[in-house]
Amino acid sequence: MDLYYGQPKHQSLARSERSTSGPQTPNEEVQERIVIVVQFGFEDKEVRLRFIRKVYLLLLAQILITAGITSVCLFVKPVNEFLREHYWIQYVLLAVTIIMFILISCCEAIRRTVPLNFFCLFFCNIVIGVLLGIIAANYSLISILIAAGVTFLIFLALTVFAFQTRWDITTLGGIIFVVSLCVVAFGFIAIFLRGIFPILQIVYAGVMTVLLCVYIVFDTQMLIGGRHKHSISPEEYIYASFNLYVDIVYLFCMMMSCNCGR
């Protein structure tokens, strides 16, 4: 049985070159074995499958928490009236959401420290749930349900596509980043000109929807690993789950923006 099954070709080649160059010292042999064990553990299918299950279970928990909080904000009259009277709360929640997003995305210590990582994750879910409740209050119930249904179908279709396709979207990270900056710039322009050109809001929502679809495929392929050029370490289940969660929430908001039934 080949010990190097499933590892990149250049690693096997490097090993064969070392083996022909002469005998190894005991220290070099121990170091090589350590590297092999670590790399094989990350590439092992069972480890990756457990990681994927954990990520999607966390994603389901996040969506359920967010949906519950949003429902309370929409259908519990005292809460709904309080949020309407104190409109400044949405700006505070937006600022908190941005801060939490930066912390979870950029601070490895927070993502990997239990139970701090779970606290930050679910606290962010609660904040986003309230924020979505404020946003959704501007739309009719049927519009919200349609947006939720379309979001679910799009996410399901893109997930199946990401698992099955031979296209490796993870190699396009730089291009996706540049396009994202352009779309954000267009979004700021649309904010200032929407009074003159109301159609800009719908155009922006459509462009963002396409970009978010690309992000969902990108994040899913990073999660899958395997034959893709880039992948997420199994220790980063919080980061992987949070990325998909943000994609879904943003896609849901875009679906509501595209829906004219307020």
UniProtKB/TrEMBL annotation:
Membrane topology, from the record: Multi-pass membrane protein
Keyword Transmembrane helix: yes
Annotated localization: Membrane
Region (Disordered) location: 1-27
Keyword Membrane among UniProt keywords: yes
Biased composition (Polar residues): 9-27
GO CC annotation, single: membrane
A Pfam family recorded for this sequence: Bax1-I
UniProtKB keywords: Membrane, Transmembrane, Transmembrane helix
Domain of life: Eukaryota
UniProt family annotation: Belongs to the BI1 family.
Protein name: Protein lifeguard 1
Protein source organism: Allacma fusca
Source taxonomy: Eukaryota, Metazoa, Ecdysozoa, Arthropoda, Hexapoda
